[in-house]
Every structure is written in C-alpha cells, then in structure tokens.
Design goal:
Blueprint: E1 5-12, E2 15-22, E3 31-34, H1 45-50, E4 56-59, H2 76-89, E5 95-100, H3 102-113, E6 118-124, H4 138-146, H5 148-151, H6 160-168, H7 179-187, E7 189-190, E8 197-198, H8 202-214, H9 216-224, E9 229-234, H10 249-255, E10 261-265, H11 277-288
Parallel strand pairs: 3-4, 3-5, 5-6, 6-9, 9-10
Antiparallel strand pairs: 1-2, 2-4, 7-8
C-alpha cells in the first residue's frame, strides 16, 4: 500500500465507519469513492495507483469491511447521509462522487439529497435500474444478479488461501495474479481460522439490495439527476458473461436524457472495471473530465 495512504474511524449516526484515504495532502477537489454491495474500500486500490496525485476518500460502507453495521436501517439514503458525515468530518466541502455497482446507486442518491456537496457523478456499472425477469421479487433478485457472489456470504473458509482459491475459480478472476487482489480478499475476511467468513452478511446485502431495486430514493434521484452524471458500462457482466448488466446504451441514453455521457468500457467485466489497471484508468479519465 502506498505511503500516502491512511485510515480513519469516523462516527456516523448508526456507529462508525472505517475510511481509507489516499494522498490526503493533494490539492484540488477530492474524489469520494463508493464501493459495491459486498465490497470494501480496497476495491479502489487500482484507482489509487492510476491517480497518484489525487486525494481519494473511500469509506467501508456500513456492515462492510471494518465498518460497523449499526442498529439503524440501511438503504441508499442512509448510506448517502453517512457519506456526508464522512466529508464533514474530513473538512471537505464538495467532492466528485464515483460509485461502483450498488455504490453507484448510493452516489446517485447522494447527489440528489445533498446536491450542494457534489460537483459531478461517475456511475460505474451501476446506478440505473437493471432489467430483471418479470415477476421476480426484490429478494429473489439479489441471488439472481449476484449468484455465487451472494452464496459465499453464508460459507465458512479454513484460511485465506481457501478463500482466495474460491475467487480464483470465479470467471471474473481466473488466471489473474495480482497482489492487490490478494490484499483485497484477505481484508474481506472476518472471524478466526478455521471458520473465517466474509465481513458482509447476507442479511445486510439483502436489505440494501431490496432498497436499491424497490425503494423510492433511487427513482427520485435518477429522475431529477441534479448534478452532471456519467455512466461507464462494462463490456461483460459479473461472471465475465455477455450480455453485461447494461446491454443497450442507446436505450439508456433515450430513457435517461439527463445523463451527460454514457460510454462502454471495452475489455472489462463488472469487477475489473474498477479492480484492474485498465478499468481504473478509464474511471480516472472520466472522473477527471470537467463538469
């Protein structure tokens, strides 16, 4: 990890968040990074490598990584309000918000609820409604979209090696040897051997995913979209498959005319659009563009 990296424990209404920060002394508007539904702030380590002069603020969302779950309700609005508490504590007035997967939905809601704190938004393979099979309940949609990624949350692992081997078999990570991946997956574990578990619980994922897919806050945010917003869509899906989560970009442009820009990122899947040098480079480029 870069020497220009540090962590904070920051109080929010329901408890405390661990917040990673790269390049804390950098000038210019900070980027606030919002990870996906089962991820942690270390999903942004590749972006930190691609933006070495940029101040990056990256919380573990409630119930993920080293952040407390707390007693209050989850959901996109709760996470958005937590993020305001983070930037308040760090003395930051305005940010560029970059959200991946579920974090993109949180980012859209943040820009709607607290528009004055957001300069512009980059949605990374998320943030807009997904097409689900007719009649599927929000709870069923969690397992339908996430597949084995959700199933792992109920498993136990003997050691870090077994957990890394689980991910090596995932189509999005086959044949990838990367020290940042090893660090990311090691950080994802909680408990003690030989019964290690992912830090995020399935109930946490379900509660957030149901709000993401069926709650009111996302719909309002997307309809109003008060800040300049770009969508980056991966070429492949969560398991490296085609079609991806967003197969028809022309339809998205027509349905969401307030989007400033919609673009496909070739050669990446839902994970590697942030968790690879090539994907992170495109995210950095989009975030650095003028609003």
């Amino acid at each position: 990890m870069s020497s220009a990296y540090r962590t904070h424990d920051i109080a929010v209404e329901a408890g405390s968040l661990l917040v990673g920060e790269w390049n804390p002394d950098a000038t210019g508007m900070p980027w606030l990074l919002v990870h996906g539904v089962t991820a942690s702030h270390l999903a942004w380590a590749w972006l930190a490598a691609e933006a070495p002069g940029q101040r990056l603020i990256a919380p573990d969302l409630r119930g993920r990584g080293r952040s407390e779950r707390g007693e209050g309700p989850l959901g996109m609005a709760a996470h958005a309000d937590d993020l305001v508490a983070v930037v308040d504590t760090l003395g930051v007035e305005q940010v560029v918000v970059i959200g991946h997967s579920m974090g993109a939905f949180v980012s859209a809601v943040l820009a709607d609820r607290h528009a004055g704190r957001v300069d512009r938004v980059v949605l990374v393979d998320g943030g807009l409604p997904l097409e689900l099979p007719p009649g599927m309940s929000p709870r069923e949609a969690v397992r339908h979209v996430l597949g084995p990624t959700a199933a792992r949350l109920e498993r136990r692992f003997a050691d870090q090696g077994e957990y890394r081997d689980f991910w090596r078999a995932h189509p999005a990570f086959v044949d990838r040897e990367d020290p940042l991946l090893d660090s990311y997956f090691a950080y994802d574990l909680a408990g003690a051997a030989p019964s290690l578990r992912p830090a995020t619980s399935l109930s946490t994922v379900e509660e957030d995913s149901i709000d993401q897919n069926a709650g009111d806050a996302v719909g309002r945010a997307i309809e109003r979209m008060p800040r300049p917003t770009t969508l980056l869509a991966a070429e492949r899906g969560l398991r490296g498959e085609v079609p991806p989560l967003y197969p028809d970009l022309d339809a998205l442009r027509a349905t969401h005319p307030r989007l400033r820009d919609v673009r496909r990122v070739d050669g990446v899947d839902h994970y590697s659009i942030v968790m690879s040098a090539a994907g992170a480079r495109e995210v950095a480029r989009a975030a650095g563009e003028a609003g």
